[in-house]
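[step 3/7] fold_predict: job queued, chain A
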Amino acid sequence: MAIARYSFLPWLRRGIANQMQAAASAAPRAELDAVLTIETRKSQASNEHQLTGTATQKVRIIGPGDIIGINQQMVVRTEPRNWITDFEPNYLAFIEFYDEDFPWRYTPEPPAGHRLRPWLALMVLKESEFERVLTPGRPLSSIKFKGGANVQNFMPAADRTWAWAHVHINDLVNNAPLEDHDFSDADRSTLENVLRNNPDKGVSRLVSPRHLEPKNRVFCLRRPCFRGGAQGWLGHCDS
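[step 4/7] structure written:
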């Protein structure tokens, strides 16, 4: 019987967002320089260049404030499951997404080493700690904390959200722990091959740091991690 092998990565991001060099400042979206090279030739058969030039344009990347809904099919697993009453209180609540890069896809900042903050996080609340707020015209509902609720008990600090999200690959991606070496280009190539051959081998996961209590009803809520995300969810995200 083959031994099961797993790889855990602190974050994963694909596409143009990997070119991000600086975090978004006051704007809700990060910006990149798109460079277009223009060449003209004397004729289609000729390789002689007549004119060469470049044009640079600032482009904005879709940010957390642009996302006001998640397709439920993106969620492949939640623990505890809905209305489950025998979940072990010494376990942590979590949510898994099918796309391995989803928690970091819209993060408006570059990584700092092995750390990259996700654009959303998982928050677990008791029924007595909050109330729902429904405001006409807003794309999503919001919540209001009730008096006595200690926010520090169920939400990590803004600079620690990176620690509560990771990628889980059901295969061996690297041959040494990440603390012993950087995630190399060879590792990235191996990861892409694994997911290309079997996209079901990986998931992304958000974990709540809150310790659950026995015989307590809790609600697991997704919350934005950046101000631009909160503004967008409340219908105040500027273009």
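[step 5/7] annotate
Residues 185-197 form the longest helix (13 residues).
The first strand starts at residue 7 and ends at 9.
exit 0
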